[in-house]
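ok so dumb question maybe but i'm new to this and my supervisor (M.) told me to 'just get the structure for Cyclic nucleotide-binding protein' and walked off. so i did the thing. is this what she meant?? sequence i used:
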Amino acid sequence: MNKIVEDMANRLLKRKPGGFGPLESRVLQSTLERTTITRDTNKAVAFQETYGDRVADTIARIGGSWSFILGFLAFLALWTAGNAWLLTRDAFDPYPFIFLNLVLSMVAAIQAPVIMMSQNRQTERDRIDAAHDYEVNLKAEIEIMALHEKLDELRHSEIIGMRDEILRMAEQIRRIDEKLSARPVIE
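this is what came out, is it supposed to look like this??
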């Protein structure tokens, strides 16, 4: 880390630069260089997705929707009605619906791990987003502190300028007063 970044870290963040990780160093460097650090995290994640990842996300999106739940409830109602009342003689899965139970168990056995895979990927996306949000927030905080510092410097230089102007004017008034007191009073 160069000297200017170390100075900025000490001055603005009141921390020693040795305690910073690569993320904080990158933010300080981008502040110094006046470059942006924002990026589209969705593109970074999408670039690394495999076909299986996209399939898992699609299954989780469909399996966790109200249309799937309502459609599956309708399927279960039709299966039960069809095998219990309509097909009492030739029911291919008579009560207690053992084949239906097997089908439901297989769907659950496949769907649950796929949804968990999708949730794990979403958790990783959330971690990437949180790290990026931290970078952006840290940079914004540093920029705001730097602006405050600049405003304080401007205000200080204005006060110094006003003081010098007041001293100059006081000196002029003193000289005018001396000239006036040196003149004889005419009555």
